[in-house]
Design brief:
Blueprint lengths: L1 H19 L1 H6 L9 E2 L6 E2 L3 E3 L11 E3 L11 E2 L9 H31 L21 E5 L4 E4 L5 E5 L13 E4 L8 E6 L4 E6 L8 E6 L15 E7 L10 E5 L4 E4 L5 E5 L13 E5 L3 E2 L2 E6 L4 E6 L8 E6 L15 E7 L9
Parallel strand pairs: 7-13, 15-22
Antiparallel strand pairs: 1-5, 2-3, 3-4, 6-8, 8-11, 9-12, 10-11, 12-13, 14-16, 16-20, 17-18, 17-21, 19-20, 21-22
């Protein structure tokens, strides 16, 4: 009965709103092309590409009708303009109120109907679930390594591209991700895709040539999981230097930091590298977290190409007031195939409370 009374209250409220807005409705009808307006003199062409309206019905704002182009004006001629009447805030409020009343009515009828069905020993009516809207948006390439127009690129580098969403791995193939050198000479190599980070990697079979411009292309043959293809081929170029990259990468920082205390139990654990890494090596095998009793924490590992950050995301909250050890092994590599010199290990202790999850 409370819900019935609630519905009646809403009915009275909406009726009141309708009465209050009756005048506003008549005043907020979308405009239509205006009546031809006579421009008697050149002085009728006021600033801002407008002419003074001779008919009150065509007057907008300070008695002026806006014209599409100043070139449309002719001395003593006629100008057709379009006028629209400003939308009243009350009209929008009325529209929102009507939607609420119908939603309340549907909910109340369903509630009362299910009471009757229950008393009759029949199963309740379950309202239909509106399926999610179909994904029709084309994916995009959000970042690349090397970046476009990069110079001095190591000749032993791999080429990567990060997509804006999860892609169909079967379309991330050598036919759709290519690299070419001078005279469009194709570079031979292999293509792989990391489903966790949405990163595609092209690994050349041999070192690239020195001081040479290369062009990488991702074609519209690649598709996301809803079968949407890239809107256009994505093409970028970079120029190599004269040397190989032989420097081992480093872990510059971690979050939580080493020996941190009071860490929220629903935290993610991140590590920032000193350079671009091979996403295919940033895996749960090379990035682990160990909890009390040497228990391995279950989670997912991802890598952000733009920031060089690897993230371990536990599938469940960590235990409160507990010591944890995070480890990144020498199995991780940069884009030139250089590994960490030594394992990166750090520890932290959780707090006894949960706070909003950090992103």
């Amino acid at each position: 009965m409370k819900r019935v009374r609630s519905w009646l209250v809403w009915t009275v409220a909406v009726a009141t709103v309708i009465a209050w807005n009756s005048a506003a409705i008549a005043q907020t009808t979308p405009g239509t092309p205006g009546t031809p307006t006579l421009g008697q003199y050149a002085s009728d062409n006021v600033s801002g590409g407008a002419i003074r309206a001779r008919s009150p019905g065509n007057m907008v704002g300070a008695g002026v009708v806006r014209a599409k182009e100043a070139a449309d004006f002719a001395r003593g001629g006629i100008e057709i303009v379009e006028t629209t009447t400003p939308t009243s805030p009350r009209a929008k409020f009325l529209s929102d109120a009507i939607k609420i009343i119908f939603d309340q009515l549907n909910s109340t009828l369903l509630y009362l109907g299910n009471i009757l069905l229950q008393r009759a020993g029949l199963p309740p009516v379950v309202p239909p679930v509106t399926p999610p809207a179909a994904d029709t948006a084309a994916p995009t390439v959000s970042s690349t390594r090397p970046t476009t127009r990069a110079t001095g690129v190591a000749v032993n580098t791999k080429i990567t591209a990060t997509f804006s969403e999860a892609m169909d791995p079967t379309t991330i193939a050598a036919a759709n991700l290519t690299v070419a050198g001078p005279d469009a000479t194709p570079v031979t190599g292999t293509v792989a895709y990391d489903v966790t980070s949405n990163i595609a990697t092209f690994t050349p079979n041999n070192d690239l040539m020195r001081n040479t411009e290369y062009t990488a292309t991702i074609t519209t043959g690649v598709e996301d999981l809803a079968r949407n293809a890239l809107a256009n081929d994505f093409v970028w170029a970079f120029t190599t230097g004269i040397t190989q990259d032989t420097t081992a990468p480093l872990v510059k920082s971690t979050d939580p930091e080493n020996d941190a205390t009071g860490v929220v139990i629903n935290t993610k654990i991140t590590a920032t590298f000193s350079e671009a890494m091979d996403p295919l090596t940033i895996t749960t095998a090379n990035y682990t977290v160990i909890g009390p009793g040497s228990t391995s924490i279950i989670g997912t590992v991802s890598y952000d190409e733009a920031s060089f950050i690897a993230t371990f995301d536990p599938t469940a909250d960590l235990a409160p007031n507990a010591l944890y050890t995070a480890r990144i092994t020498t199995g991780v590599e940069d884009l030139a195939g250089n590994t960490l010199a030594v394992n990166k290990v750090w520890t932290f202790t959780t707090a006894d409370t949960q706070k909003p999850r950090r992103r």
